[in-house]
Amino acid sequence: MFVVTVTFVAQADQSQALYEALIEQARNSLTLEPGCHTFDVCVSTDDEATVFLYEQYADAAAFDDHLASRHFKSFDSRVTPWVRSKSVQTWTISERGQ
Fold this sequence. Notes:
The protein is of the alpha+beta class. The chain has helices at 15-32, 60-68, 70-79; strands at residues 2-10, 36-43, 50-57, 83-92. The two termini are 13 Å apart.
């Protein structure tokens, strides 16, 4: 399983708009992408401008499909002005200990 984590920090006064767009993006990804298995949107308890995403894909190719999708490209261009910072990391789920 291929895991992607993303931390967004919204621009001032854009927290709610970013959150709503992320919820829509999660719904689209889970519905339209067979390779997307999990897409959790988490808001920091310390700062509502900070949102953390936890996404699971079947493999790296499924994530590449996500990035190439029409709904992602539309989402990305819409929210970019609302984002103060964005950090993306990728992971694999280890088979050790399972």
